[in-house]
UniProtKB/TrEMBL annotation:
Keywords, ordered alphabetically: Coiled coil
Coiled coil: 60-134
Keyword Coiled coil in annotation: yes
Protein name: Kinetochore protein Spc24
Organism this protein belongs to: Triparma laevis f. inornata
Length: 182
């Protein structure tokens, strides 16, 4: 009835066993005793099956608890690692923010100094231009005064000596100067 490769359910197996037991109950043969033992064996198999099922269920529960513990440990490790990394990144961010603040302050100070130096340079340039303008106005006046002194006194200036005012005075005899003899 049952093929070697096919599987049947436990209920079907029990039904077949009951049929066999009912079939052989009336006879006093060894088969009847064997059939009686079958029902005992079925009960024994059932008990063993229940015990195995209970044992496997407890083993599954133990393994599930171990897996949960391992997952929790892994998650804690990952959380700890993540927390450490986040702390490192937060410290780095604070450090960089301080550097940016310092650089910003330094840049602001340098820009103020640049503006101050620009103002100083502008004032100096204006002063130099004013001085140059004054010199340009005085040059004709000074030239005129030197020419006047030269005509009145007969001074012959020696321009070869830089930084010194040198020359010769020649007073003509008609103005009271010495007379030269030839």
């Amino acid at each position: 009835m049952v093929a070697g490769t096919s599987t049947i359910s436990w209920e079907s197996t029990l039904d077949i066993m009951r049929e066999l037991t009912d079939l052989y109950k009336g006879n006093e043969t060894d088969d009847v005793a064997d059939a009686g033992m079958i029902s005992t064996m079925v009960n024994d198999v059932r008990k063993a099956s229940e015990e195995m099922r209970s044992s496997l269920a407890s083993q599954v529960d133990i393994l599930a608890a171990q897996v949960n513990d391992a997952e929790a440990r892994c998650e804690r490790e990952n959380n700890d690692e993540f927390s450490k990394k986040m702390d490192e990144l937060s410290q780095r961010e604070e450090s960089l923010n301080e550097e940016v603040k310092t650089i910003g302050e330094t840049t602001e100070e340098i820009e103020k100094r640049i503006n101050m130096y620009k103002e100083e340079a502008k004032a100096e340039t204006e002063a130099m231009e004013e001085c140059e303008s004054t010199k340009m106005e005085e040059i004709p006046r000074i030239k005129h005064a030197i020419s006047l002194y030269a005509n009145i006194t007969g001074i012959k200036f020696d321009y070869s000596k830089e930084g010194k005012l040198m020359g010769h005075i020649a007073i003509p005899p008609e103005r009271g100067g010495p007379q030269l003899q030839h």
